[in-house]
Amino acid sequence: MRLAIPRAALCAAACSLALVSTLPATPRAASAVPAVEMTARVTDVGAAPCRTLRPVAAATATATPVPLLRGATSSPSQVRVDPATRAAFVYWAARDGGLRVTTKTGELDVRKTVYLDGRFEIVLEAGQDRLSVAMGPHSVDVARGGTRAHVEIGRDEDDDWLRVKQVLAGSKALRLFRALTAALDPATLETVAGTAMLSGDAVLGYLDGDVGAIPRLAEHFIKQRRAKLKPAAFEDESDAAEKTCYKKYEEEVAEAAREYHECRRTFEWWSGWQAACVARWALQAESAWFQFIACSAVPLRLD
Amino acid sequence: MHILWYLVVDVVIGLILAGAVAPLVLALLPPHVRGSWILGGIAIGCVLVVSFVRQFAIEPGRRKEQEER
Question: Would A81 disulfide with which of A39, A63, A72, A231, CB 3.0-4.6 Å?
């Protein structure tokens, strides 16, 4: 279960990262590019959620501009209004190199920033309740009010995750955020903003104890992108099971030869360790050979 | 009884030798020729080589030694 956390982090960042890499890195560059042109560039990525971006001019005609949260560093680049909740999502390339998405509906303020290295940060505010979750490939930091929880992924224990859950418990901002995500229009979920909210919801849900949140998100993403997947090579378990004895032998011998070549390059030609390389290769080759004989022999039942 | 013992020794040594020779032979052969039947041929060949070496190179010397004693 713990292994799902880094996967969740990567999953959550995946679509947004694709967008970050296409947006101008600096706000000056962002403002220099016309909105419609930027939209076209974003759709070139081919990601399904990025298809329904509207040009700024069209979006602002229907959307009420929302005040940006603290820490906003550059002017908004894109706006998306959700028809179901009337929430306006604003996103732009921040000065620190990340892609930032913000929205405000009623009491709830949401700010999510995704970085190229896979880190992301979600800040939720609802009245006096302020919840901050920062997650990267190696750690998770959760802060709410005066309480904090830090988890080092890889050296984590069950108590660490329980502490995270305790910090999240009773958060009004989290409840409103999850309610907002659940109420979003299906069309919005296919946009960058919708994907950002959906992935954030899955990660926060997982941290809050909803262990099925990540698999549900994965299924959603797979359904969205299935039409665009083109398998270049396919080898399933049944193929592996049908490998002939000779095929297995050939693979093992090839691997032994590759390791021998690497071993020879590791030591100088006059070194006595060259003999060890030969000995290792001989052992591997013999092992593969006797496995081949055992595999090819008539199977004996020893009940 | 001696013949059976020699046969077992020839087969064991021949198979061990074949384990080292087979990858080298496969590497020398073009890909379309490689196959499990080549490995079978190498195994039989190595057993025969060991057997011939024992019979015609080692045995005469041993017999001579025994006769001299």
Answer: A63
